[in-house]
Amino acid sequence: MSERYQPAAAGDAATGAPGPGSAAAGECVGEGLWLVRRESGLALVSDDGLELTGDFSAMRRRLRPQNLAHELLVRAARVKGVAHPTVFDATAGLGEDSFLLASAGFSVTLCERDPVIAALLADALERAAADPGLAQAASRMRLVRADSVAELATLEQAPDVVFLDPMFPGRQKSALVKKKLQLLQRLERPCSDEAGLMGAALAARPRKVVVKRPAKGPWLAGVRPSYSLAGKAVRYDCVVPASCGNLAQAEKDPRS
Ligand SMILES: C[S@@+](CC[C@H](N)C(=O)[O-])C[C@H]1O[C@@H](n2cnc3c(N)ncnc32)[C@H](O)[C@@H]1O
């Protein structure tokens, strides 16, 4: 993480210094990948011209109270009789799902193990905290840079909800998702420890585990959900330990 990034076209060819208005010098964080400080925030930039910044401001329309109430994730994560449930987002990524939940009144701990994704997320949270329209939600969010499997085992108080959205190996259709994923997939691989993640989530003794899956994807780690909320592209599988036993057994998913 010590090389410097200087886009050739924008910099001074003689001195190698970044030119005015160009990207500031950045850190190499992988093959052809750079973390660059832009005026708009920290960006992950690739040599082939892709760029990604964590940003919650584009979500404003979705964050209106009348919209939030209909968000499938918000409905899946609600806990009967608890006005402001606590959520442990064990696969935080760039935090958009968590931001929806925080905007709906949940208190969210976001856990991210990849240092580059965590840096983008921390930067997005910082900018949200300084934006009057987003600050209230940001104040309900806390970032932990760690592996969730280990972190969940250290929790002194059980969260109401553990949320899991590990990278799914299948194809994604939306162009936007594709573009973001192209960059993110260079940093992270599809989840290879589904059972470890689900086991750690259940062992933390939440009231429920909510798992985000592609609409037709298999159950995570083969654990049968107590119920599911399905949309066109995405499905939320809710595992309620009290209704299926704390050691939910892996079963053969009828879809697989
Ligand atoms: C598909 S992305 C999550 C996207 C997220 N829901 C959002 O709204 O942006 C999955 C993320 O989980 C992280 N992750 C996977 N396993 C993890 C673990 N055991 N502990 C912490 N983070 C993990 C990956 O690094 C990746 O950033």
UniProtKB/TrEMBL annotation:
It comes from Olsenella absiana. InterPro entries: 16SrRNA_methylTrfase_J, SAM-dependent_MTases_sf. Its EC number is 2.1.1.242. This is Ribosomal RNA small subunit methyltransferase J. HAMAP family: 16SrRNA_methyltr_J. S-adenosyl-L-methionine binds at E112, R113, D165. The keyword S-adenosyl-L-methionine applies. Residues 1-22 are annotated as: Disordered. Residues 7-22 have a biased composition (Low complexity). Belongs to the methyltransferase superfamily. RsmJ family. One of its GO terms (biological process) is methylation. Keywords: Cytoplasm, Methyltransferase, rRNA processing, S-adenosyl-L-methionine, Transferase. SUPFAM superfamilies: S-adenosyl-L-methionine-dependent methyltransferases. It comes from the Bacteria. Pfam families: SAM_MT (PF04445). It catalyses: guanosine(1516) in 16S rRNA + S-adenosyl-L-methionine = N(2)-methylguanosine(1516) in 16S rRNA + S-adenosyl-L-homocysteine + H(+). GO terms for molecular function: methyltransferase activity. The gene is rsmJ. Specifically methylates the guanosine in position 1516 of 16S rRNA. It is found in: Cytoplasm. Gene3D superfamilies: Vaccinia Virus protein VP39 (3.40.50.150).
